[in-house]
Amino acid sequence: MKKFIVLSLMGILVLAFGTTVYAQKEAPKLDFKASGFINVISFYTLNDPGLNAGAKIYGAPATYGTPDASAYDRKVSYLDSRAHLKFDAVMGKELSGTIYFEIDSTRWGDTTPTTTDRGKMGYWSADRASVEVKNIYFDVGIPYIGIPVPMTARIGLQPLNIRPHIFVYTDGMGVSGGIKIDPVMIQPMWFKALEGADWTADDVDVYGLHVNAKVGPFTIGGYGLNYNMNTYPFNAATSNQKANMWWLGLYADGKAGPVNFNFDFVYDRGKVEDRTVVQDVKYRGFATRLKLDFPWEKFNFGGVGLYGSGADKNKTGDDGVPGELTASGAVTSKVGSYVVPVGSENGAISGESVMLSWYAGSTGGVGWADNHNYNQMCRGSSGGIWFAKAYASVKAAPWYKVTLQGLYIGDTTKHGNTFGNAVKTGTSTLRDDKDIGWEFDLVNELQIYKNLKWEIAGGILFAGDAMEFKRTGVNANDSPKNPWAIVTRLTYNF
Q1: Residues 387, 390, 396, CA angle at the centre, nearest 5°?
Q2: 31-493: which CATH topology?
């Protein structure tokens, strides 16, 4: 039924577009534009993991998650690069098309690719097939056809982008609309996340509605997204699992006197089912965030508070799927951690701090909360943690800005820890700690030329008990050296 409704809506759009053929008095001229950027990023870190693209409900990246792991307590250094090239073909206000490419080197000196050259621009002798298609879509203005409000449609491979610092950014095939009824903007959307076999109901559809309104100095909005996943995890060769998940969110941006603020609240609810008799897994999680800024002359003072609900490790396995055993030996029954949708790159975008999540390039950046998963739900940048952050910045010169910030970070996972996996002395029972630690960062931004910017960021985390790890095969723990990172990013925008 849902597919029939979507196809019917697309048919109405086609009929609507047809009427414009007779409405145009003369053909508009083509305005062809190109834009993009090229960057170079350097990393020098200790115990600060890079992007964990296989992130799950909880747990640290494998190369950092035990004292026996390869990168544990070892300094890491490398460079990567990313380039974007975007073409826009604009035919007046009513019609435009966009083709957007991405080219990456995950390491300067990329190794020999196995099955694809994706992300291997830095391979020695070059000549790699590394150009990736990011977006291909067109935007069209819909004529009034009896409804006297401005309406638009975007069709094709496009961003699904709603409050990405805490919720979702991903790219996919879909149709999204815009209906402007001043002061309200209504954005219905449908995305086809997975088709699978054409002859069976194994596909994945995303249905959503995003509404906001400008009320004086405030923008107030809300949204709801439903992921109807007849195959879960995505792209599984064989899967008896399916999932139906909802995300509901509210937000407000604005200015109260001299203070700018941004507020978010997101709630996830749903379940993952197994088509056999295995027990279903319920999902119930939330995250909330408040940011305040007080600009004064060349200065800016601010603070951020965030809370993301955590899982109960007695009820939740690493993947949060039916039939999976938890650390205590029980069968997974509930995921209380806040989770983000499959494929959301929220973990790499949030950028709250150098040690939690710092977006920096083709590898997604560095940070313990810098994670996402293209096939399963995961906790993104917010699930299982809370923090309070204070910062101050000054525009010391027209070409130089410096920011100093400090955070206290806590753990909200129950009967275990979000990042660490320490056990109680002499047992295999997970320890429940609340102290991830104190972090301090210094960020320098230098505008060398109008289109050339250099950023230098450094941070250190004075790790608490929740960052201790169990030794492999032994019921004993180890405390890592305090994690730190120095990251630079040189970007040419055009």
Answers
A1: 145
A2: Porin (2.40.160)
